[in-house]
Amino acid sequence: xxxxxxxxxxxxxxxxxxxxxxxxxxxxxxxxxxxxxxxxxxxxxxxxxxxxxxxxxxxxxxxxxxxxxxxxxxxxxxxxxxxxxxxxxxxxxxxxxxxxxxxxxxxxxxxxxxxxxxxxxxxxxxxxxxxxxxxxxxxxxxxxxxxxxxxxxxxxxxxxxxxxxxxxxxxxxxxxxxxxxxxxxxxxxxxxxxxxxxxxxxxxxxxxxxxxxxxxxxx
Length: 219
Fold this sequence. Notes:
- The protein has helices at residues 7-19, 24-39, 42-45, 68-72, 88-99, 101-106, 119-128, 142-146, 155-163, 168-171, 208-216, and strands spanning 57-59, 65-67, 77-81, 110-115, 134-137, 150-152, 178-180, 183-187, 193-198.
- The chain is of the alpha/beta class.
- Strand 8 and strand 9 (193-198) form a beta hairpin.
- The longest helix has 16 residues, at 24-39.
């Protein structure tokens, strides 16, 4: 991709190519589930700008345990929730964040990614994409629930994911149905959410340029 291509433009190109490879009956199930999730209003109920960020203490891919309070003692935190290494849209977004990691760190911020998958899966992901930021495991999506992001897959979509070989039972440590909405937060040192991106559409993500602008706008 050219340097000028935005993340969401890259995601849209992938989406359009992928649609041609998915059988029509599966596309119908995916679209219906997506519309039902959008209509649920969950994105509007998630934590947003001005709210106090919820604390967490989660294991990282490298075996550490990281807590939000500890991270904030060093500066602001960019917190992003993703579905897992099985999700190609997540992988594209994480690679884009890696490309902007140096710029985020230069602004004194710590980039942290959270998913419901087990640490081994996070480690594999980190190694595959040479991620240099922290990747945390939120088994059971307890932290995602505190942010208002967790939802359960409907039966027909869960069956589709099984058919596609995603094996969420294994990678999510026995919690195959619960996933987070894609979300990214910029949290200041006082623990206040100063910028938020939350969507029910897993094919769109926060633009790194917008994250950097939010960091620049911090007092």
